[in-house]
Amino acid sequence: MKIAVIGTGYVGLVSGACFADVGIQVTCVDIDQKKIEKLKNGIMPIYEPGLEELVVRNYRSGRLKFSTDLGEAIQGAEVAFIAVGTPPGEDGSADLKYVLAVADEIGRKMTDYIVVATKSTVPVTTGEKVRAAIKAALEKRVADLPFAVASNPEFLKEGAAVEDFLKPDRIVIGVDDERAEQIMQRLYKPFQLSGDRIIYMDIPSAEMTKYAANAMLATKISFMNDIANLCEKVGADANMVRKGIGSDPRIGTKFIYPGVGYGGSCFPKDVKAIIKTARQYGYELKVLQAVEDVNDAQKHVLANKVKAYFGDDLTGLTFAMWGLSFKPNTDDMREAPAGVIIDELRAAGATVKAYDPVAMEEAKAHYIFDKVTYCKDAYDALVDADALLLVTEWSEFRIPSWQAVGKLLKNKVVFDGRNIYDKNYLKSLGFEHYGIGSK
Ligand code: UDX
Asked: If 64 and its partner were Cys, which of 58, 127, 261, 410 is the partner (CB 3.0–4.6 Å)?
């Protein structure tokens, strides 16, 4: 079986490499020639555990190819996945120009029946737009070739994407053509999912599923952050409350960890986009608007705690920051709470020394530039710092040498943005600990 994956970003590259790994002939296509050359040489555009090994192994075996030639890649392919970016436009809605440009090119270059499946997160009704774009391109060629469109949203988590792809908890396929359904069935067979975990539905429902899933997860987080903020006021401990409610299987233990707010490439973008879609249809998604508002405010909570301790004017003070990426095991800095915290500390006159095991290059390149001093390791960041801020819960920060931390910091004060440290233990070592959702 042969397929093409168009777009070698995060979703496309992981999907392409994983399909190749189960024996499918995959050509990953991108318009960025440099990126394609790098991939051929085993250089990954993103950091994702297990990805490099998977790409190199499958490239060497010849099952995975990289190309800038979409026309050639789709020759003989049964499925073409569209996995290009859908950046938020100025008004918050997903910009479809890349998706529709790919659809147009497929229409211009296809020579046989093909299933065109979108993997990019796209608003409801995009399936129809993709179909129309392909049809229009075919009509221009005066070609009457059959094709099908499908929606196959991905649910990959950054940092665990390869594993999520190879062992998915469900696969959602929106399709309205029997032949296409059979092809998709064959494609996903190697992933050995029991029947009820491959869920077939109509295309708009599949498109909606992706947004509803991310919006529900974002809602859990914002809900818990809201409760955590109230816990602080009334003298309750949000971590105890979390355990107390999570033991009810209807609520569940996952995604109810209070923290410094959610970031990343999905939740912020998707919550905005679905609110926008609703408005286009004259409907107000009030819960999700609140989810977004709570999250925006939550990114300021840690810096506010610093100000409550040291005063609003932080001139002359230096803070050590452990973690920059929006979550561990990724170098992704998109919408990372660290950016908001750094801006706020600097605006109050402070200096920030940061260390992140993987994301410093990314931070330097795009987002935080020279706003912080980048340090060679976690302890280096503590030298001459007035307090420690834990922003991303990388494993290596979990059990530091508190003796060394205490010696290096000017004050034994820890602002724990992810509640990874035991307050009582730190207290017994003479530290002051400020977490999220408890006094
Ligand atoms: C998410 C979805 O999980 C995935 O299914 C979808 O395909 C893409 O979006 P991702 O953005 O990689 O994946 O990150 P995820 O692990 O879900 O975390 C999102 C954010 O929520 C992070 O900033 C994380 O720190 C935060 N979070 C998560 C919390 O603050 N509390 C929690 O309890 C869980």
From this structure: 58
Domain with CATH 3.40.50.720 in the chain: 2-201, 299-434
- In 56-191, DSSP assigns E strands to 64-67, 79-82, 114-118, 147-151, 171-175
Pairing of strands 147-151, 171-175: antiparallel
Q: How many CB atoms lie within 10 A of CB 76?
A: 15
What do you get for the CA distance between the two ends of the chain, in Å?
A: 59
Is any ligand 1 atom within 6 A of the Cβ of residue 263? yes
Strand partners, 355: 322
Please give the chain's pLDDT, 439 residues, in tens: 999 999 999 999 999 999 999 999 999 999 999 999 999 999 999 989 999 999 999 999 999 999 999 999 999 999 999 999 988 777 777 799 999 999 999 999 999 999 999 998 899 999 999 999 999 999 999 999 999 999 999 999 988 999 999 999 899 999 999 999 999 999 998 886 666 689 999 999 999 999 999 999 999 999 999 999 999 999 999 999 999 999 999 999 999 999 999 999 899 999 999 999 999 999 999 999 999 999 999 999 999 999 999 999 999 999 999 999 999 999 999 999 999 999 999 999 999 999 999 999 999 987 777 899 999 999 999 999 999 999 999 999 999 999 999 999 999 999 999 999 999 999 999 999 999 999 8
- Say how many Å lie between the CA of residue 258 and the centre of ligand 1: 12
Atom 19 of ligand 1, nearest CA residue = 262
Angle at 347 between CA 346 and CA 350, to 5 degrees: 35
Dihedral over alpha carbons 116, 121, 127, 133 (to 10 degrees):
-70
Does the CB atom of residue 326 touch ligand 1 within 6 A?
yes
CATH class of the region 2-201 = alpha beta
Q: Of residues 18, 231, 266, 375, which has the active-site annotation?
A: 266
CATH 1.10.1040.10 region(s) of the chain?
A: 211-297
ipTM for the predicted complex: 0.92
| Domain 299-434, classified CATH 3.40.50.720, yes or no | yes
Nearest-CA residue for atom 5 of ligand 1 = 155
**Distance from residue 183's CA to the centre of ligand 1 (Å):** 31
Contact present, 362 and 331 (Cβ < 8 Å): yes
Q: Is 18 a catalytic residue?
A: no
The third-level CATH classification (topology) of the domain covering 211-297 is: N-(1-d-carboxylethyl)-l-norvaline Dehydrogenase; domain 2 (1.10.1040)
H-helix or E-strand containing 140?
helix 126-140
